[in-house]
Amino acid sequence: MQHNPIALESGLVAQLARYGEAVNKDAQAIKWAIRGIDIIRETKQNFTLPVLAEKIVPQMVLEGRYAEALDLALETGTVLIGINKHRQDGGETLNFDFNPETFLGEKPNKLWQQAEQHAAVMALIPIAFHLSTVLVNQPTVAYEQGTAVAAICRQIGVTSVEQDWTTVARLFENIYSNKASFSDLVNLGNTFVSKGENAFLDVLWTISYLGASLQSDVKLENALIVLLYIMRRMHLSLKPSSPTYQRIALPFLSTYWITKFEKMRFRFRSPQMIEEKLTEANTFFADQQAQAIFKTVSFGLGVAIPSEFSSWLQISH
């Protein structure tokens, strides 16, 4: 059996990117991932794209390259679902010029929907968290970037098999212009949950709840609860080791509560201790940072955390 040495190199590079992430060498992991993408573009051997895109999409988001991040996520979703279908059919992915669309069939169908759902999780979640971090200190910039992302989503919706891209666009427009209310966005998020279970609806729920925490009428006690729901979901679905969780979701949570504390210090009991604990939380491992922040905020506000979160708050790996 003969293998394309350059194609196999992309697989090796993917493993190196994973290793770099495992030993907390983010810059090195991203470097290898970018090299792997270049190899894929040269050889069209894209079976390693899902592993590499997981590293690169969050980096694109952090750099404000939202259109590129969404394009890569959509491509990755297609490749991932195509590979899964091909393997179910007993195929050998490594030995040919892999065209995932061949296995997905004609639009619209469930496979294409799954591909877009995967893309939404990969790109829209980090985009929403990153824009939320921007909004905390630079609301004008967040509005401009949120409007740009909304326009991109509307373009995707033109050829999409998931009509909810238009809903995503409206969410970004309303959330980052601060035109919505806390209760409106929470209620909207709950309607997505009531429609059933799929990854796209989960993304819409996450964006709605995240947006609710950012509105001007939000009470700190309510923000604590909605962010608990979001971060527990992110912790369990993305895993603490993922770049989106470590590099985008956790920094948002820390920035959010440090900023709230600085602006409303009088609302927190034992403020000196709360300040120290919020700073200290950033030194914890990723699987414990969010929990430490929530416990600190809960104590500071004098708000009891619902019992359903008790086991998650004690998680340690």
Characterize this entry briefly:
The chain has 317 residues and is mainly α. The protein has 15 helices and no strands.
How many E strands? Answer: 0
Give the termini distance in whole angstroms. Answer: 42 Å
Q: Tell me, what's the shape?
A: globular
Q: Which structural class matches the secondary elements?
A: mainly alpha
Computed CA radius of gyration, to the nearest angstrom = 20 Å
Q: How many strands, what sense, and barrel or not for the largest sheet? A: none
Treating each run of at least 4 consecutive H or I residues as one helix, how many helices?
15
Relative helix content: over 70%
What's the order of the H and E elements? Answer: HHHHHHHHHHHHHHH
Strand content: under 5%
Low-confidence stretches: 1-17
Mean pLDDT: 86
User: How many structural domains does the protein architecture include?
Assistant: 2
